[in-house]
């Protein structure tokens, strides 16, 4: 397929952000919940309130996780809570560790906080935890390890139970904090669930998550499960930052859950996204077998693809838009490198868009 042929297509295929599709948003159910919230609790949720968030939602999350409600901090998306944690736990110049590749916005927050970032490679067989342990044994002072162990952004990989246990053991030996980010955990389409890092050490692990991928990103409702000794400091910092989060949005999420919408909605998402993931994996096998390697996710939003290293300079020289594609720059997900990496989001695309997009990607990479 040549560029002139591609230009005849109506619009570019968007392999950029991991955005839930319009059809995933439960508009009618949320309208019902919002109506109930304003009628039943309008004055309370429209006033200034305690910084930790809407108490009934905190209690539901605490019950699910087997912890006291005081350890649940609700916020305006989990990314803002992470930003607060970085400022509460660390100082400029401290060193933190991340999987490589990792979520690009987290790297931005860490750099903005003046932190030194150590990348721990994600290899084909998993996290290179041996290299990480060797660095620790050699005296590397890591203060915090940030990880997305379930359907990682951007690679789609899942950390094995053995890797999770080793990481927890290392944190206890070398005294660093683990931040487990789990926004995709409920979006498993096949395979068996792996025990969360939080459940391996619930007194010490910080777990972040949100309802952005499960209900609506526009509501901006995220949360943290905090160790007991961090509650006061993190809460004070949050209060000094935004006084309190949106209780209206918290209460809408709470109503969505107690009204019984959540379970059926997650099942709907799993069924829809599973078909789109399979369409992408099938298209990759058909178009790029032997030319690239990619992950085989069992859930989440993304497939991670690596081109042949010999082609990475070729990839950088190309303009994806000439081929009817919009791609994120793979280097944004890496501390160093990333020229040979492409993140492929599939959830917001119809199966025919996915097939066309991978066909165009093949044309671009094999030009």
Describe the structure.
The chain starts with a helix and ends with a helix. The protein has helices spanning 3-6, 27-46, 55-65, 78-89, 104-112, 129-137, 161-174, 197-200, 231-242, 247-258, 261-288, 312-317, 351-365; strands at residues 13-15, 72-75, 95-100, 116-123, 126-127, 142-147, 177-181, 206-210, 222-225, 292-294, 302-307, 325-327, 341-345. By secondary structure, the protein is α/β, with parallel strands linked by helices. Helix 4 packs parallel to helix 5, helix 4 packs across helix 9 (231-242) and helix 11 packs parallel to helix 13 (351-365). 43% of the residues lie in helices and 16% in strands. The chain has an eight-stranded mixed sheet, with helices on both faces. The model has no long low-confidence stretch (mean pLDDT 94). The chain has two domains: 27-260, Aspartate Aminotransferase, domain 2 (3-Layer(aba) Sandwich); 263-365, Aspartate Aminotransferase, domain 1 (Alpha-Beta Complex), CATH 3.90.1150.10.
């Amino acid at each position: 397929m040549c560029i002139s042929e591609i230009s005849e297509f109506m619009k570019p295929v968007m392999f950029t952000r991991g955005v839930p599709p319009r059809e995933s948003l439960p508009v009618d159910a949320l309208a019902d919940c919002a109506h109930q919230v304003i009628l039943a609790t309008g004055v309370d949720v429209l006033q200034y309130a305690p910084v930790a968030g809407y108490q009934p939602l905190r209690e539901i999350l605490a019950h699910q996780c087997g912890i006291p409600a005081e350890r649940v901090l609700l916020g305006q998306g989990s990314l803002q809570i992470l930003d607060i944690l970085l400022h509460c736990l660390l100082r400029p110049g401290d060193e933190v560790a991340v999987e490589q590749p990792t979520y690009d916005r987290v790297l931005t927050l860490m750099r903005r906080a003046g932190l030194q970032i150590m990348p721990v490679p994600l290899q084909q067989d998993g996290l290179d935890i041996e290299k990480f342990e060797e660095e620790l044994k050699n005296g590397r002072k890591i203060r915090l390890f940030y990880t997305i162990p379930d359907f990682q952004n951007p690679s789609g990989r899942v950390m094995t139970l053995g890797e999770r246990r080793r990481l927890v053991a290392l944190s206890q030996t070398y005294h660093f904090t683990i931040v487990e980010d789990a926004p995709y955990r409920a979006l498993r389409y096949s395979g068996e669930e792996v025990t969360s890092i939080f459940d391996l050490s619930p007194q010490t692990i910080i777990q972040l998550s949100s309802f952005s991928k499960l209900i609506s990103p526009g509501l901006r409702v995220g949360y943290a499960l905090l160790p007991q000794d961090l509650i006061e400091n993190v809460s004070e910092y949050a209060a000094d930052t935004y006084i309190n989060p949106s209780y209206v949005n918290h209460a809408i999420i709470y109503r969505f859950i107690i009204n019984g919408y959540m379970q059926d909605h997650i099942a709907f998402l799993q069924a829809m996204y599973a078909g789109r993931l399979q369409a992408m994996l099938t298209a990759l096998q058909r178009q790029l077998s032997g030319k690239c390697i990619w992950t085989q996710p069992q859930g989440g939003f993304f497939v991670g693809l690596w081109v042949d290293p010999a082609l990475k300079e070729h990839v950088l020289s190309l303009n994806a838009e000439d081929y009817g594609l919009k791609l994120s720059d793979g280097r944004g997900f890496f501390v160093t490198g990333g020229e040979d990496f492409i993140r492929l989001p599939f959830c917001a695309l119809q199966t025919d868009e996915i097939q066309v997009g991978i066909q165009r990607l093949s044309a671009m990479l094999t030009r």
